[in-house]
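Exercise: predict the fold of this chain.
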Amino acid sequence: MSDVQVAPPVEGPAFTRDYLNLADGSLGAEVTWVTDEFFAPRARMLDPEPARFYPDKYDDHGKWMDGWETHRRRDTGHDWCILRLAMPGVLHGVDFDTSFFTGNFAPAASLEACWSPDGDPDNDAEWQEILPAVSLSGNTHRFEALAASGPWTHLRLHIWPDGGMARLRVYGQPFRDWDSPDLNERLDLAALANGGDQVAWSDAHYGEPRKLLRPGRGFNMGDGWETRRRREPGNEWCILRLGHKGVVDEIEIDTAHFKGNFPARFSIQAACVEKGTTQSVITQSMFWKTLIDEQPLTADAIHTFTELNDLGGITHIRLNSIPDGGISRVRLRGTPVK
Protein backbone atom coordinates (compact mmCIF):
# COMPACT_ATOMS: atom_id res chain seq x y z
CA MET A 1 0.00 0.00 0.00
CA SER A 2 1.29 3.45 -0.91
CA ASP A 3 2.29 5.88 1.81
CA VAL A 4 -0.53 7.79 3.44
CA GLN A 5 -1.08 11.43 2.49
CA VAL A 6 -2.23 13.89 5.16
CA ALA A 7 -4.17 17.07 4.42
CA PRO A 8 -1.87 20.06 5.02
CA PRO A 9 -2.77 22.72 7.61
CA VAL A 10 -4.71 25.69 6.28
CA GLU A 11 -4.84 29.18 7.77
CA GLY A 12 -8.51 29.87 8.32
CA PRO A 13 -10.46 32.95 9.42
CA ALA A 14 -10.25 34.25 12.98
CA PHE A 15 -13.25 32.17 14.08
CA THR A 16 -11.27 28.95 13.55
CA ARG A 17 -8.80 30.13 16.21
CA ASP A 18 -11.09 32.03 18.55
CA TYR A 19 -13.76 29.38 19.02
CA LEU A 20 -14.18 25.69 19.70
CA ASN A 21 -15.09 23.14 17.02
CA LEU A 22 -18.47 21.98 18.34
CA ALA A 23 -18.67 19.29 15.64
CA ASP A 24 -15.66 17.47 17.10
CA GLY A 25 -16.43 13.77 17.46
CA SER A 26 -13.85 13.36 20.22
CA LEU A 27 -15.87 15.84 22.31
CA GLY A 28 -19.08 13.87 21.78
CA ALA A 29 -20.51 15.34 18.58
CA GLU A 30 -22.37 12.70 16.58
CA VAL A 31 -24.17 12.33 13.29
CA THR A 32 -27.41 10.74 14.41
CA TRP A 33 -29.08 10.23 11.02
CA VAL A 34 -28.10 10.16 7.34
CA THR A 35 -29.94 9.62 4.10
CA ASP A 36 -27.05 7.50 2.82
CA GLU A 37 -23.44 6.57 3.67
CA PHE A 38 -22.68 3.98 1.01
CA PHE A 39 -19.05 4.86 0.29
CA ALA A 40 -17.86 6.29 3.61
CA PRO A 41 -19.50 6.35 7.06
CA ARG A 42 -20.78 9.44 8.82
CA ALA A 43 -18.44 9.30 11.83
CA ARG A 44 -15.31 10.02 9.78
CA MET A 45 -16.60 13.51 8.94
CA LEU A 46 -16.33 14.52 12.63
CA ASP A 47 -12.80 13.23 13.19
CA PRO A 48 -10.75 16.10 14.69
CA GLU A 49 -7.59 14.91 12.95
CA PRO A 50 -6.72 16.08 9.41
CA ALA A 51 -8.14 13.98 6.59
CA ARG A 52 -5.95 11.20 5.21
CA PHE A 53 -5.68 9.57 1.82
CA TYR A 54 -4.40 6.09 1.01
CA PRO A 55 -3.88 5.89 -2.77
CA ASP A 56 -4.25 2.11 -3.00
CA LYS A 57 -6.81 1.47 -0.26
CA TYR A 58 -10.20 0.02 -1.22
CA ASP A 59 -13.00 -1.74 0.65
CA ASP A 60 -16.12 -3.68 -0.34
CA HIS A 61 -17.85 -0.50 -1.53
CA GLY A 62 -14.98 0.94 -3.56
CA LYS A 63 -12.33 3.56 -2.90
CA TRP A 64 -11.71 4.13 0.82
CA MET A 65 -12.29 7.81 1.63
CA ASP A 66 -11.72 9.65 4.88
CA GLY A 67 -15.02 11.45 5.33
CA TRP A 68 -18.75 11.02 4.69
CA GLU A 69 -19.64 9.97 1.15
CA THR A 70 -22.96 8.93 -0.37
CA HIS A 71 -23.72 6.86 -3.44
CA ARG A 72 -24.33 8.51 -6.83
CA ARG A 73 -27.92 9.69 -6.99
CA ARG A 74 -29.98 8.95 -10.09
CA ASP A 75 -33.02 11.04 -9.09
CA THR A 76 -33.91 14.66 -8.31
CA GLY A 77 -33.33 14.44 -4.54
CA HIS A 78 -30.34 15.26 -2.39
CA ASP A 79 -28.56 13.86 0.67
CA TRP A 80 -28.48 15.24 4.17
CA CYS A 81 -27.67 14.32 7.74
CA ILE A 82 -28.51 15.41 11.29
CA LEU A 83 -25.66 16.28 13.64
CA ARG A 84 -25.87 16.62 17.41
CA LEU A 85 -23.27 19.15 18.53
CA ALA A 86 -20.81 18.16 21.23
CA MET A 87 -22.45 20.77 23.45
CA PRO A 88 -25.05 23.50 22.90
CA GLY A 89 -23.47 26.56 21.41
CA VAL A 90 -23.65 29.94 19.74
CA LEU A 91 -22.17 29.41 16.29
CA HIS A 92 -19.74 31.76 14.56
CA GLY A 93 -18.42 29.90 11.52
CA VAL A 94 -18.16 26.69 9.55
CA ASP A 95 -15.46 24.90 7.57
CA PHE A 96 -16.61 22.63 4.74
CA ASP A 97 -13.46 20.58 4.13
CA THR A 98 -13.34 18.46 0.96
CA SER A 99 -9.69 17.33 1.30
CA PHE A 100 -8.88 14.51 -1.17
CA PHE A 101 -12.40 14.55 -2.61
CA THR A 102 -11.67 15.57 -6.19
CA GLY A 103 -14.15 13.93 -8.58
CA ASN A 104 -16.60 12.96 -5.83
CA PHE A 105 -17.07 16.06 -3.64
CA ALA A 106 -20.48 17.58 -2.91
CA PRO A 107 -21.01 20.53 -5.29
CA ALA A 108 -22.90 22.57 -2.68
CA ALA A 109 -23.88 22.54 1.00
CA SER A 110 -26.26 24.37 3.32
CA LEU A 111 -27.00 24.33 7.04
CA GLU A 112 -30.10 24.39 9.21
CA ALA A 113 -30.17 24.40 13.02
CA CYS A 114 -32.58 23.70 15.84
CA TRP A 115 -32.74 23.87 19.64
CA SER A 116 -33.59 20.49 21.16
CA PRO A 117 -31.86 20.23 24.56
CA ASP A 118 -33.97 17.32 25.79
CA GLY A 119 -33.00 14.87 23.05
CA ASP A 120 -32.66 14.44 19.32
CA PRO A 121 -35.26 16.39 17.31
CA ASP A 122 -38.39 14.61 16.12
CA ASN A 123 -40.40 15.16 12.97
CA ASP A 124 -42.10 18.20 14.51
CA ALA A 125 -38.85 20.03 15.31
CA GLU A 126 -38.50 23.59 14.07
CA TRP A 127 -35.43 24.07 11.88
CA GLN A 128 -34.01 27.44 10.90
CA GLU A 129 -31.71 27.99 7.94
CA ILE A 130 -28.47 29.54 9.18
CA LEU A 131 -26.50 29.23 5.92
CA PRO A 132 -28.05 29.14 2.44
CA ALA A 133 -26.48 26.81 -0.11
CA VAL A 134 -22.89 27.71 -1.02
CA SER A 135 -20.78 26.22 -3.79
CA LEU A 136 -17.96 23.84 -2.89
CA SER A 137 -14.82 22.81 -4.78
CA GLY A 138 -12.76 19.65 -4.61
CA ASN A 139 -9.83 19.15 -2.23
CA THR A 140 -10.22 22.51 -0.51
CA HIS A 141 -11.82 24.39 2.40
CA ARG A 142 -14.86 26.63 2.16
CA PHE A 143 -15.04 28.88 5.23
CA GLU A 144 -18.29 30.71 5.98
CA ALA A 145 -19.00 33.03 8.90
CA LEU A 146 -22.24 32.63 10.84
CA ALA A 147 -23.73 35.71 12.48
CA ALA A 148 -23.54 34.65 16.16
CA SER A 149 -26.28 32.18 15.42
CA GLY A 150 -27.99 30.33 18.24
CA PRO A 151 -27.74 28.83 20.69
CA TRP A 152 -28.39 25.52 18.96
CA THR A 153 -28.04 21.85 19.84
CA HIS A 154 -28.41 20.20 16.41
CA LEU A 155 -27.54 20.92 12.78
CA ARG A 156 -28.94 19.57 9.55
CA LEU A 157 -26.29 19.48 6.84
CA HIS A 158 -27.60 19.32 3.28
CA ILE A 159 -25.32 18.38 0.40
CA TRP A 160 -26.56 19.09 -3.10
CA PRO A 161 -27.17 16.62 -4.63
CA ASP A 162 -24.75 13.93 -3.32
CA GLY A 163 -21.05 13.23 -2.88
CA GLY A 164 -18.47 13.49 -0.15
CA MET A 165 -17.33 15.77 2.65
CA ALA A 166 -14.00 15.03 4.36
CA ARG A 167 -14.63 17.11 7.48
CA LEU A 168 -17.34 19.36 8.85
CA ARG A 169 -16.06 21.79 11.49
CA VAL A 170 -18.50 24.15 13.18
CA TYR A 171 -16.91 26.78 15.39
CA GLY A 172 -18.76 28.34 18.28
CA GLN A 173 -18.98 29.23 21.92
CA PRO A 174 -20.44 26.60 24.27
CA PHE A 175 -23.70 27.78 25.82
CA ARG A 176 -24.94 27.33 29.36
CA ASP A 177 -27.98 29.16 30.71
CA TRP A 178 -26.62 31.22 33.61
CA ASP A 179 -29.71 33.44 33.93
CA SER A 180 -31.19 31.30 36.69
CA PRO A 181 -28.39 29.02 37.90
CA ASP A 182 -28.56 27.08 41.13
CA LEU A 183 -25.94 29.07 43.00
CA ASN A 184 -25.41 26.17 45.41
CA GLU A 185 -24.37 23.83 42.61
CA ARG A 186 -20.69 22.89 42.62
CA LEU A 187 -19.25 22.35 39.17
CA ASP A 188 -16.09 22.68 37.12
CA LEU A 189 -16.23 26.39 36.38
CA ALA A 190 -13.54 26.14 33.69
CA ALA A 191 -14.95 23.19 31.73
CA LEU A 192 -15.59 23.72 28.02
CA ALA A 193 -19.18 22.62 28.54
CA ASN A 194 -19.61 25.45 31.06
CA GLY A 195 -18.13 28.07 28.73
CA GLY A 196 -14.50 28.02 29.90
CA ASP A 197 -11.84 28.73 27.30
CA GLN A 198 -8.24 29.68 26.63
CA VAL A 199 -7.21 33.34 26.46
CA ALA A 200 -3.42 33.50 25.98
CA TRP A 201 -0.26 31.48 26.55
CA SER A 202 3.51 31.72 26.46
CA ASP A 203 4.00 28.62 24.32
CA ALA A 204 1.91 25.75 22.97
CA HIS A 205 4.34 23.90 20.74
CA TYR A 206 2.79 20.45 21.29
CA GLY A 207 -0.79 21.29 22.26
CA GLU A 208 -2.98 24.31 22.98
CA PRO A 209 -4.28 25.14 26.50
CA ARG A 210 -7.90 24.62 25.43
CA LYS A 211 -7.26 20.88 25.71
CA LEU A 212 -6.89 21.33 29.48
CA LEU A 213 -10.63 21.99 29.68
CA ARG A 214 -11.88 18.97 27.72
CA PRO A 215 -14.08 16.35 29.43
CA GLY A 216 -12.63 13.12 30.78
CA ARG A 217 -8.99 12.22 31.14
CA GLY A 218 -6.55 12.70 28.28
CA PHE A 219 -6.37 9.73 25.92
CA ASN A 220 -2.66 10.17 25.12
CA MET A 221 0.22 12.60 25.54
CA GLY A 222 -1.07 14.71 22.64
CA ASP A 223 -4.30 15.41 24.48
CA GLY A 224 -3.14 18.24 26.73
CA TRP A 225 -1.21 21.51 26.92
CA GLU A 226 2.49 20.92 26.35
CA THR A 227 5.23 23.46 25.76
CA ARG A 228 8.63 23.14 24.14
CA ARG A 229 11.68 22.54 26.32
CA ARG A 230 12.46 25.88 27.89
CA ARG A 231 16.12 26.88 27.42
CA GLU A 232 16.10 30.19 29.29
CA PRO A 233 15.16 31.45 32.78
CA GLY A 234 11.53 31.81 33.72
CA ASN A 235 8.53 29.56 33.24
CA GLU A 236 5.67 28.89 30.83
CA TRP A 237 2.10 30.03 31.52
CA CYS A 238 -1.40 30.11 30.13
CA ILE A 239 -4.44 32.23 30.95
CA LEU A 240 -7.85 30.56 31.12
CA ARG A 241 -11.27 32.17 31.33
CA LEU A 242 -13.92 30.58 33.52
CA GLY A 243 -17.36 30.05 32.05
CA HIS A 244 -18.88 32.12 34.84
CA LYS A 245 -17.60 34.14 37.76
CA GLY A 246 -17.28 31.86 40.75
CA VAL A 247 -15.58 30.90 43.98
CA VAL A 248 -13.11 28.06 43.47
CA ASP A 249 -12.64 25.67 46.39
CA GLU A 250 -10.86 22.76 44.72
CA ILE A 251 -8.20 22.47 42.01
CA GLU A 252 -7.31 19.30 40.12
CA ILE A 253 -4.17 19.02 38.00
CA ASP A 254 -3.93 15.85 35.90
CA THR A 255 -0.61 14.92 34.28
CA ALA A 256 -2.03 11.81 32.55
CA HIS A 257 0.49 10.31 30.08
CA PHE A 258 3.12 12.96 30.87
CA LYS A 259 5.96 10.96 32.41
CA GLY A 260 9.32 12.40 31.41
CA ASN A 261 7.96 15.81 30.53
CA PHE A 262 5.55 16.97 33.24
CA PRO A 263 6.22 20.33 34.99
CA ALA A 264 8.30 20.14 38.15
CA ARG A 265 5.88 22.51 39.87
CA PHE A 266 2.88 24.71 39.21
CA SER A 267 1.13 27.70 40.74
CA ILE A 268 -2.08 29.56 39.92
CA GLN A 269 -2.85 33.26 40.07
CA ALA A 270 -6.39 34.55 39.65
CA ALA A 271 -8.51 37.68 39.37
CA CYS A 272 -11.95 39.02 38.61
CA VAL A 273 -11.53 40.77 35.26
CA GLU A 274 -14.29 43.23 34.46
CA LYS A 275 -13.06 44.63 31.13
CA GLY A 276 -10.04 44.67 28.87
CA THR A 277 -8.39 43.12 25.86
CA THR A 278 -6.27 40.01 25.58
CA GLN A 279 -3.10 42.09 25.75
CA SER A 280 -4.24 44.00 28.83
CA VAL A 281 -5.18 40.74 30.55
CA ILE A 282 -1.72 39.30 29.80
CA THR A 283 -0.06 42.38 31.30
CA GLN A 284 -2.26 42.45 34.40
CA SER A 285 -1.93 38.70 35.01
CA MET A 286 1.65 39.13 36.18
CA PHE A 287 0.29 40.97 39.23
CA TRP A 288 -2.76 38.85 40.03
CA LYS A 289 -3.07 37.44 43.53
CA THR A 290 -2.07 33.84 44.18
CA LEU A 291 -4.87 31.29 44.36
CA ILE A 292 -2.45 28.46 45.14
CA ASP A 293 1.28 28.73 45.84
CA GLU A 294 3.88 26.61 44.05
CA GLN A 295 3.18 22.90 44.44
CA PRO A 296 5.20 19.90 43.15
CA LEU A 297 3.76 17.64 40.46
CA THR A 298 4.41 13.98 39.66
CA ALA A 299 4.19 11.92 36.50
CA ASP A 300 0.96 10.53 35.07
CA ALA A 301 -1.19 11.33 38.13
CA ILE A 302 -4.20 13.28 39.36
CA HIS A 303 -3.31 15.92 41.96
CA THR A 304 -6.10 17.45 44.06
CA PHE A 305 -5.74 20.61 46.17
CA THR A 306 -8.28 22.12 48.55
CA GLU A 307 -6.12 24.47 50.62
CA LEU A 308 -6.51 27.60 48.51
CA ASN A 309 -6.22 31.28 49.23
CA ASP A 310 -9.58 33.01 49.56
CA LEU A 311 -9.84 35.45 46.64
CA GLY A 312 -13.64 35.56 46.42
CA GLY A 313 -15.25 35.45 42.99
CA ILE A 314 -12.84 35.14 40.05
CA THR A 315 -13.25 35.05 36.28
CA HIS A 316 -9.70 34.23 35.06
CA ILE A 317 -6.68 32.22 36.15
CA ARG A 318 -3.03 32.23 35.15
CA LEU A 319 -1.63 28.70 35.32
CA ASN A 320 2.15 28.75 35.72
CA SER A 321 3.96 25.65 34.45
CA ILE A 322 7.34 25.67 36.20
CA PRO A 323 9.59 25.64 34.29
CA ASP A 324 7.85 23.94 31.34
CA GLY A 325 6.27 20.65 30.26
CA GLY A 326 2.86 19.10 29.77
CA ILE A 327 -0.41 18.99 31.71
CA SER A 328 -3.40 16.97 30.55
CA ARG A 329 -6.37 18.51 32.41
CA VAL A 330 -7.19 21.30 34.86
CA ARG A 331 -10.39 21.33 36.93
CA LEU A 332 -11.54 24.38 38.89
CA ARG A 333 -14.40 23.19 41.04
CA GLY A 334 -16.54 25.67 42.88
CA THR A 335 -19.75 27.63 42.97
CA PRO A 336 -20.93 30.26 40.48
CA VAL A 337 -21.74 33.69 41.90
CA LYS A 338 -23.51 36.70 40.47
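Check your answer against the key: The first helix runs from residue 15 to 18.
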